[in-house]
Amino acid sequence: MPELRFLPAAGKYLKKLKDKGLKEKFHEAIQTILENPFVGEAKKGDLEGIFCQDIFYNKTNYELAYAVYQEEAQIIIVIMAGTRENFYDSLKRYRK
Q1: Domain covering 3-95 assigned CATH 3.30.2310.20 in the classification
Q2: Kindly report the CA angle at 14 between 9 and 17, in degrees rounded to 5?
Q3: Of 4, 32, 62, 70, whose CA is between 20 and 30 Å from 23?
Q4: Residue 10 has pLDDT above 90, yes or no
Q5: CA-to-CA distance for 94 and 96, rounded, in angstroms?
Q6: Edge-to-edge strand ranges of the sheet holding 3-6
Q7: Rounded Cα gap, residues 65 and 80, in angstroms
Q8: d(CA 63, CA 4)
Q9: 3-state SS string over 37-56?
Q10: Distance between CA atoms of 8 and 5, rounded to whole angstroms?
Q11: InterPro entries under this entry (predicted)?
Q12: pLDDT in tens, 50-59
């Protein structure tokens, strides 16, 4: 099973979630990513090398951005999580 790591932005967002249903949706998405790291949509251009998993909950779109590194063992790094509004702009700023 791949190793899972969280960058501070993602860890902080997921830790602050109070809605148990939403927290469960993120947990399910992370489990799906652990089973198949390439299940998310591969981004192009400025965000090349990043995958994003869509999460729909309570009529709101959320995103989970992660990267997969193939070393001796696979490492999945969750970069950022949040609502889709301005998500990609924030992700580009965070990546720099």
Answers
A1: yes
A2: 130
A3: 70
A4: yes
A5: 6
A6: 3-6, 74-83, 60-70, 51-57, 41-42
A7: 5
A8: 17
A9: CCCCEECCHHHCCCEEEEEE
A10: 10
A11: ParE-like_toxin, RelE/ParE_toxin_dom_sf
A12: 999 999 999 9
